[in-house]
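Model it.
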Amino acid sequence: MKKNNELGRTMIETVLYLSIIAVLAVGLIQIVNSMHDKFKLSKVGEQISMISKGITARYMSAGRYTSLDVEKLVDEKVIPQNMSQGGDVLYHAYGGRVRIKGEKNVYLVTFNNIPLAPCIELALLNWTINDATSLVSLTINNDKYIWIDKSSAVSSKALPVSVTDASESCETGEDNTIIWEFE
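Modeled.
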């Protein structure tokens, strides 16, 4: 009788190994995508924070923002360089348009085309430091949030934005707009 000493793999073993590799690959892709989303969210938060601090520092002594010039802010490196596409055209980390507009005593920073999850996260950012803030209002799509004195009877939506309010104000899809109003 002849003894067979082949050490080859069966078809079932091969399919099993390939299935395990496929499951691990899917898991790895999800981890990478999650890390990329967190990086973008962090980048957008950093961008709005740098814009706010830079403009406030640049124009604080004048107390007026009517002469706010985006091209000059880019040239003076007040605006993060990775946002500029040349001139006064700015884009945030999710690829949406950024607009900055100075008014008499306030300035508005508008981020367009923000996906749902980042919209909620950005709405929940804490803008107070030692109970002080330069944020006057936050508008998410058409919902405006303002700081409300606890003794007042104003029926506006109040800052800071709650998770429930953020979830209701941010819409499904990638077409959310957030406007920060600073003084």
